[in-house]
Each structure stands twice: as structure tokens, then as C-alpha cells.
Automatic annotation (TrEMBL):
Keywords for this protein: Lyase, Pyridoxal phosphate
Top-tier EC class: lyase
Enzyme Commission code: 4.3.1.19
Name this polypeptide is given: threonine ammonia-lyase
Cofactor entry: pyridoxal 5'-phosphate
Domain Tryptophan synthase beta chain-like PALP residue range list: 21-304
Superkingdom in the source lineage: Bacteria
Length: 324
């Protein structure tokens, strides 16, 4: 597997230029006063699929040879990678099948179907869904798209970090939530090329720490996978993204699900922004580790907004202990 480079990100930017407008990077005085530092919110939550992953999907499909597009793609996902692939496949007329772990976020499953993709539920968690997707891809001769071991996804996602460093060249830290690690790997690639003094700090849910523990131990590990933040819910590290993170990542923090819930509320109240749990994890890191970010100019990636109905109803009633 080839490690993507900054030129792959620049190429992706050319591909995406006519497909997606840049997303805003905004500052909110109420938010600054809640967290006690200057914070910028990168609004990937307003992408057409409600999450940053669409950058990667569009870049991947645009670069696929026509015969591969004709054979179709198969992905496995808890939702946002699925929407990204379905959106991108529909644009080029490729068939798309998504294997989701059983009982997915119903909003995400419905959105994938609405984009014209086939949804199959298989397995209790992402690992089993992945295994099933692999078998299906072999049977059908379709291209299996990994959630993270895909250079074109990382390169596409990297365009959001080019935007961040153009919008705020003086940012000291960019905080990125991690599941498979494509976002954090992309941030590392772009920061090391265009903003080498900027720290990239990754965040994962403490209840699903596989990427965190893989990075800390320097080897790919498998861990329990129990967070409610499905965008962060992976049970093992991924080789490609871990390799890139090992070279450039400054730090990796864990946050509890109740702090993520508090961060969702803070984003709604202070930034008028609906974030799904994974999309609020960067903000949760600021709430959980204020001393780590004191005096720094911080950009937090608000990576997605695809909260389920129950989750949406709960955002305005965070657990009292967690309310910031
Ligand atoms: C997928 C996802 C993440 C994690 O991104 P990775 O590239 O898998 O590490 C974070 N937030 C949201 C909303 C996501 O959908």
C-alpha cells in the first residue's frame, strides 16, 4: 500500500474543486469564553453528506478506472464512510453496496439507501461487517473499499486541512477525532508539509481505544469497542493510517462518552452547531484537558452532524455531571 503524499492531496484538491466548496472555519465568542481559549471550529458538519468523509469518497471514485467503476464498490461502515461512498458512486454511476453492523444509526442507514446504495446489515460490530464485505466483494468481483487503508481517501480528506491552514495560518494545534485514522493521518500529512509548527492532536473515545493504543504501543492492536460515538467505533488500528500518525502526530487523547455528550451541548449552545458524537469529540478534548491547550490557538474539526433522532433529542439534556 502506497503512503499518500502532499502532492496526492494537491491533486485531490483539483478533483474536488468543482464538486465541494470549502467549508467555513469559524470563531464564536461564547465558545471561546466557555473553553477559556481561542478556538476555531472547522465545519465539516455542513458537507452534503453531513461529514468530512465525502472528500475521500469523491476523490477515490474519481480516480477509479472505468472498468473498475462498472464492477461496483463494496464498503463496510457504521454510516458516514457509507454515505461518502454512496454519494460518490452515484455521481459516477457505479453500483455501491454497504455492509453495516447490525442495528445501525437509522438516520445513517436511511441516508445511504436514499443515495441509491444497497445496505446489508451483518455482524455485531465493524470487524464482522468488514469480514462479510470482503467475502461479498470476492463473490461479485467488486472493489472492496477499506475504511482507512486507502491512500485516495486520506488524500481527499487532506483537502480539509489545506483549507484550515489557509484559513488560519497561525493555528498552533489542530484537534482531530479518530476512528480508522484517515482524518488524523491526513492532518499529519498536510501539517508536516505546509504548517510544520502546528501540532496535530488526535482524540478517540476511551470506550473504543484501539487506534489510541495502537499509536501508543507502536503496533496494531485490537481493543474492546463500546463507544456510542459510532464514527470513532473501531476495534483495531489500521496499518496505513497508524504508519503516518507514528511519524507526525504530537499527541493522542482519550475522552469519555459523557464528556462527548457535554461537548455536543456546548457546540449547540455556543456555536449553533449540531454535531454527532464523533463530530464533538475534538471539542470534548478541550473540555477534558484544558491545561493541554491553555494559551494555544486551536482548531477543532467538527467532523460530522449525522446524529440519530434519539441522539438529537438527548443533546439538549446532557448528563448533569457532564454539563459544561
Ligand atoms: C469517520 C468519522 C470520524 C473518524 O474518522 P477516521 O478517518 O475514521 O479516523 C470522526 N468523525 C466523524 C463524524 C466520522 O464520521
Amino acid at each position: 500500500m502506497r503512503t499518500p503524499s502532499i502532492s496526492d492531496v494537491l491533486h485531490a484538491r483539483r478533483v474536488l474543486d468543482s464538486l465541494l466548496p470549502p467549508t467555513p472555519l469559524r470563531s464564536y465568542s461564547a465558545l471561546n469564553s466557555t473553553v477559556g481559549i481561542d478556538v476555531l471550529v472547522k465545519h465539516e458538519n455542513i458537507q452534503p453528506t453531513g461529514a468530512f468523509k465525502v472528500r475521500g469518497g469523491l476523490n477515490l471514485l474519481a480516480g477509479m478506472p472505468a472498468d473498475e467503476q462498472r464492477r461496483g464498490i463494496i464498503g463496510y461502515s457504521t454510516g458516514n464512510h457509507a454515505q461518502s461512498l454512496a454519494y460518490a458512486a452515484a455521481r459516477v454511476g457505479a453500483a455501491c453496496t454497504i455492509v453495516m453492523p447490525e442495528n445501525p444509526n437509522p438516520c445513517k442507514a436511511a441516508a445511504v439507501r436514499a443515495l441509491g446504495a444497497e445496505v446489508i446489515e451483518a455482524g455485531a460490530a465493524l470487524g464482522e461487517a468488514c469480514e462479510y464485505a470482503g467475502k461479498l466483494a470476492a463473490e461479485r468481483g467488486a472493489r472492496l473499499v477499506s475504511a482507512a487503508n486507502e491512500p485516495a481517501l486520506i488524500a481527499g480528506v487532506g483537502t480539509s486541512y489545506l483549507e484550515v491552514f489557509e484559513q488560519a495560518p497561525d493555528v498552533d494545534v489542530v484537534v482531530v477525532p479518530v476512528g480508522g485514522g484517515s482524518g488524523a493521518a491526513a492532518a499529519c500529512l498536510v501539517a508536516s508539509a505546509v504548517a510544520p509548527d502546528c501540532e496535530v492532536v488526535a482524540v478517540q473515545a476511551a470506550a473504543s481505544p484501539a487506534a489510541h493504543d495502537s499509536w501508543r504501543s507502536g503496533e496494531i492492536v485490537t481493543r474492546p469497542n463500546q463507544t456510542a460515538a459510532e464514527g470513532l467505533a473501531t476495534g483495531s488500528g489500521f496499518e496505513l493510517t497508524q504508519g503516518i500518525m507514528r511519524q507526525h502526530l504530537s499527541d493522542f487523547l482519550l475522552v469519555d462518552d459523557d464528556v462527548i455528550a457535554a461537548a455536543q451541548w456546548v457546540l449547540l449552545r455556543d456555536a449553533h452547531t449540531v454535531a454527532e458524537r464523533a463530530g464533538a469529540a475534538s471539542m470534548a478534548a478541550l473540555l477534558a484537558y484544558p491545561q493541554r491547550f491553555a494559551g494555544r490557538r486551536v482548531a477543532v474539526m467538527c467532523t460530522g452532524s449525522n446524529a440519530s433522532e434519539d441522539e438529537l433529542r438527548g443533546i439538549a439534556q446532557p448528563p448533569v455531571a457532564a454539563a459544561a
